[in-house]
Amino acid sequence: MGVETELVRALRGVVRGGVDGTAGARALVTMDASNYRRTPTAVVTPRDAADVAATLAVCRAHGEPVVARGAGTSIAGQATGTGVVLDFTTYMTEIVELDPEARTARVQPGVVLDALRAAAAPHGLTFGPDPSTHSRCTLGGMIGNNSCGAHSVAWGTTADNVGELAVVRGDGTAVTLAPGTWDGAPEGLRALVDDHLAPLRTGFPDLPRRISGYALDALLPEGGGPDLTRFFCGSEGTLGLLTEATVRLVEAPRARALAVLGYADESAAAQAAAGLLPYGPLTVEGMAADLVRDAEGLPKGGAWLFVETGGTTPAEARARAAAIARAADCADAVVVTDPAAQRGLWRVREDASGTATRMPDGSEAWPGWEDCAVPPARLGPYLRDFRALLAEHGLRGTPYGHFGDGCIHVRIDFDLLTGPGVDRFRRFSEDLADLVVAHGGSLSGEHGDGQARAELLPRMYGPDLVRLFERAKDLWDPAGLLNPGMLVRPAPLDADLRFAVLPREPVGPPVTAFGYPHDNGDFSAAVRRCVGVAKCRTTTAAAGGGVMCPSFRATGEERHSTRGRARLLHEMLAGEVVTGGWRSTEVRDALDLCLSCKGCASDCPVGVDMATYKAEFLHHHYAGRVRPAAHYALGWLPRWLRAVAATRTARLVNALAALPPLAALAKRLGGVEPRRALPRVAPRTFHRWWRGRPRAQGAGRAVVLWPDTFTDHLAPAVGQAAVRVLEAAGLTVHVPPGGVCCGLTYVSTGQLDRARAVQRRTLARMRPFLEAGTPVVVLEPSCAAALRADLVDLAGASPHARVLADSVRTFAEALEEYAPDWRPPRLDRPVVGQTHCHQHAVLGDAADRRLREKAGLTGTLSGGCCGLAGNFGFEKGHWEVSKACADEQLLPSVAEAGPDAAVLADGFSCRTQLEQLAGVRGRHLAEVLAEALDEGA
Question: Is 0.70 surpassed by the pTM of this model?
Fold first, then answer.
C-alpha cells in the first residue's frame, strides 16, 4: 500500500480532476465486458488534456501502467489494467465544436456516441459507425477499438470517419495526427515502414472488417498515405492517449425502412447476405431464433436478416426495402416503415450481446470469440465449419452479427470455472484462429484483440509482422506503460480470467435467504449474470417505457449503476479488493441509492435483478446488528399501521403528525427525510369498510381482492373503487381476513427472516382460497410483483407458495381474463402518468393498455421510475435522487398534460410522489373507471 499511497499523493498534486485509490473505486474498474479481470492501483478522472499529460508523467516516474477507459464495454479485456485507469466519462465529455457545413465535429474522448448523434441530428447529419452499445459507448473507446456497428456496410469503420486526433504519446509528447503527413509520428516510425514495404504490402488480408493488429499498412505511401489517424485507430490505448478527435459526419437518411428477411437457419441467412450488398443497403444484420425472446413482428424462419434502407422520402425508403425483399431468396419477409416498430425490432438485435450470455437451457455463455470476420462471400462456408468446430469441442454458441460485412458475434458456453474447462477454452481458441485464417479472415472484426486474441496474432500475420508491431509499439511508448499485455507482448488468453477469484462452491441456501432458482441456487452465478454491456449506463430511459437504471441517470456515477453494483458484489465474493465480505461498506454505500425498482430484471439483457441482490446483501450486512432507523420505521410499516387500526387512533396520529415539532421529531427518530410529508392514515381501513357494507349477491367468477397494506390503511378508496368495478363486471369479490401481507417492506429493507415468516403466515391464511383455485386480484403493483416473484423464492418450501404466485392477477388482467365480455364505460379522454416500475419489470402492462383502450383512455404512460419507490424516497439522504427520478419523466409528462387528462398512477408511491412534488392527485385505473360507472348510473 505504500507505493499506492505515494502514487495517489503524487497524482493529487498535479491532477485537477479526480484521483481515487480506494478499494471501491478500484473494484468498479477491475473488469470490462470481457472474460478478464485486472486490479488497478488508482482511478483518475481527468478534466482536460493537461490532466492526461500530468497523469502520464507521474506514472512514468513511478513505473505504473496507464489504461484509458471509456464506457468499459470492451469485450477483449483492453479496458482493464493493473496500473492507473484513466476514466474519461466524468469530465472530458464535451462536444467542442460541430460544423454542419464541413460535416465535422471536434469531441473529447468521453463523449457518448448517442450524444454526438443527437447534436448532429438537427443538421440532418449523424456519425456513421454505431455499435449496439451506442447509447453508452464513447468516441474515445470507439477510436481505440476501431468500432464499426450495424451501418458499416454503408459508412465504414471508425477509422473511415476520423479526421484529426490530438494524442499524448507514451513518452509524454502531445501531438496532432492527420492523414497525409508524418507530423506527430515518433522518430524512427517512417524508417521502420520504409525498410519493410514488401511485408506491409502483402501481409494484411483484404476484407472490410480487418481490425486485428496495428494497421501499419495505413502508413504505406500508396493511396494517399501515410494516414496516422487510420493507423492509430484500433491501437487500444497502447500507443498514446487520445485527448480530442475531429470526426467526419455523414448525411442521415431522411427516411428509413427495414426489411426483415426470414431464413431456415443462420447459415442460409449468411449465404444470402453478400448478395444483397449491390442493392446499397444501410445494414445487413443477422441473428438466429435462439437469441429472440419474443418473435412477435418477425417473419417466419429460424434466422433473420435485418436489412435497412434509406431514402429522401418514406416511399423511397420503403420501395428500396421492398425491392430487396423481392430479390432475396428467403422463406418470408416483412417490410417495416413505422419508426417505433423499427426501434422495437432493432432492440431485439441490439440486446443479443447480453441475451447470448444465457443458452436456451439457462446455462452460461461467454465472449472470447466475439467478432471474427471473414470475406462476406465466405461467411456461409465459414459458419458451417464453425458449427462443426463447436461440435468437435463439445461446445455450443449462437452466431449473430454483421453478416453483410462477414463479421460474426457469438457467445460460447465455455467452462471458465475449472481447469479442464479453461484448457478446452485454449484449445478451441487456437483451432478457431486457424479456421478464421484459413477462410482469409481477421481474428477481430470490430472489438479489437485485447487479451482475448492478441496471443494468436502470429497465426494470422506470422511472427515477422508481429515483430514489426512490437517495434512500432516501442517507438510510440518506449517505457511500455500504455496498456501493457494488449496487442503486443500479450498476456496469455487464459490468464487473468475474472471467474478465477470467485468461490469454488455455490453460494446458495441455506447461506443465502433467496433460492436463486434461475441460477442453479448460486448467488455468485446470479452476480456473474452481469457481463458488462452496460445498458444500465444510459442517460435516458429506453424508449417504450424502459426503467433501468434511475439511480445512474440521477447521479452519472458507475457505482450507482446496475453494472457498478454487480462489479462490487463480484469483488465482495472474490475478497481481494473488497475485503469486508457481507459487511462491506463499499457495497453497502453503492446499494444505498438502488431504488429496488427491478427495472434491471427486465431491461437488462441478461436479467440482473439488483433489487433481489440488494435485499440479500442487507439481510447479511445487518445480521445480528442494529439497523438504520428507517428499516424499523418503514420496514415495519405494516405492523405500525395494523396497530393504529386496532387501536382506532388514526385521527390522533394524523393530528400529531400535523404538528411541525412532533412531525420533525418523528422523522428524525425514524430516519425519514425531513422534507417529506408524512402520509395520512385512513380513519377507516378498507377492511372496516368491507365488513360494514352490504354483501353483493354476484353469480360470476369468484375473485379474492388482496388488501395490501397501502390500500388497506392509506388509500382505501382504491380498494372500494376496485370492488365497484369488479362487481359491475359480474365478478364475485371476496376479501381475505386481516393480517395477510406480501412482505414487501421487509424484503426491500433486507429483513428477510421476517419477510419469510410474514409470507408463510399469509400462505396459511390464504389456504382456503388457494385450494379452491380462486384468483387473487392485487391492486398495488409492487405487492403483486412481490407475490409473483419474491414469494416463491423466499417461501418456496411451502407447497402453496407457487399456487399463490400463479394465482396473482393485476386489476386489468382479472377483468380481461374473468370478465372478457364486460365493456368498461367510455371516457374518451387522454391519460398521463407512469407505468409502475415493478409492473413494467415483473407483471407487464399489456392488459392495462388494452383496458385503457376499451375505455377510450388515449395516450401512453411514461417510463422511468417515480423516485419514491416505497421506502426509498422517504429515507433520509435520498431526497435529491428521488426528486431527480421524478423530474426525468413523470413530472414533465404531467406538467405538459391538458386539463382534461386523467392522471394515472396505480402505485401508492407514484401517487404520493405526484402529490408531494407537484401537488397533483394521481388515481388508480380502478378509481377512474369507478367514477365513470357512478356518473353513468
Answer: yes
